[in-house]
Amino acid sequence: MFIETRKLTKKFGGLVAVNEVDFTIEKGKINAIIGPNGAGKSTFFNLVSGSYTPSSGQVFYKGKDITKLPPNKIATLGVARTFQTTNLFEQSTVLDNVIVGHRLRTRSNLFDAVLRTKRYKEEEKKCRDKAMEVLDFVELTHVRDELAVNISQEEKKRVAFALALATDPEVVFLDEPTAGINPGETEGLAALMEKMVKRGITVCLIEHKMKMIMKLADKIMVLNYGEKIAEGTSEEIMNDQAVIEAYLGGDASA
Ligand SMILES: Nc1ncnc2c1ncn2[C@@H]1O[C@H](COP(=O)(O)OP(=O)(O)OP(=O)(O)O)[C@@H](O)[C@H]1O
């Protein structure tokens, strides 16, 4: 089992945001979590990536119980994530944004930085090389010297992907990766997710764009009021009575 949650639960006071969710994230696949607003999708992400401690239940990563590990420890195991909004240094170049983002996660300390030790210089070069490599992967080499303020919304999303990929993750959690961009650009990002999977990276995403997710995802979990109401392939999900009811009145064709 790659990633598995067992009866994962998060309560905020009297509200059960995630309720005893059992789910497995399949290695080398595109896994998606969908559900109406407030269903518990982001909370589930935060539990698996260690940003929240569960009220009860467990998270396993490659057989290891990671339930109580802090986010930085989970990240070093090969788990990366993006957030709904990525704050870039607008007056820095795209390349510098990725270098800095990556450096924050590498090993040399302030002492190394001030004295510009050998280790610092070596790491600086490694970070730069890595940043160039991931920018090439997300197809942003042509804008790497542009200031972040000048790139498009879709390009900013690609920078967020690059930041996550710079840590050489085995799995990437993408929180609404296509929010706020137009349908044409959405297709480009979907293709990028497929490219990640081809490279051997497992993808798990939260998404509201149903048409896209039905085409893209290998496996889907549907949450509603914190509970898993369905799990399966696109076809299984589209024909599931509980899912249809949860979305009635909502816009499932967005
Ligand atoms: N830190 C928090 N403190 C209190 N309640 C919270 C907190 N985070 C989330 N909630 C509540 O938990 C429930 C689930 O929220 P969550 O953000 O996980 O849903 P979601 O499915 O990601 O929603 P959306 O699609 O709107 O982003 C909601 O009722 C929300 O108000």
Please outline the helices and strands:
Elements: E1 3-12, E2 15-25, E3 30-34, H1 41-48, E4 56-61, E5 64-65, H2 71-76, E6 79-81, H3 94-103, H4 110-115, H5 118-137, H6 153-165, E7 171-175, H7 183-198, E8 202-206, H8 210-216, E9 219-224, E10 227-232, H9 234-238, H10 241-247
Parallel strand pairs: 3-8, 3-9, 6-7, 7-8
Antiparallel strand pairs: 1-2, 1-4, 4-5, 9-10
Helix pairs in contact: 3-5, 5-6
The structure holds adenosine-5'-triphosphate.
Structural notes for this entry:
The chain is built from ten helices and ten strands. Helix content is 39%, strand content 23%. The longest helix has 20 residues, at 118-137. The model has no long low-confidence stretch (mean pLDDT 91). It is of the alpha/beta class and 254 residues long. It folds into two domains: 1-78 and 169-253, 3-Layer(aba) Sandwich (Rossmann fold); 89-168, no CATH class. Bound molecules: adenosine-5'-triphosphate. Adenosine-5'-triphosphate binds at residues 12, 15, 17, 35, 37-43.
Describe this structure in a few short sentences.
Keywords: ATP-binding, Nucleotide-binding, Transport. The chain has 10 helices and 10 strands.
CATH topology annotation of the largest domain: Rossmann fold
Tally the helices: what do you get? Answer: 10
Low-pLDDT ranges: none
Global geometry: globular
The string of secondary-structure elements, in order, is EEEHEEHEHHHHEHEHEEHH
CATH superfamily of the largest domain: P-loop containing nucleotide triphosphate hydrolases
CATH architecture designation of the largest domain: 3-Layer(aba) Sandwich
Bound molecules: adenosine-5'-triphosphate
Number of domains: 2
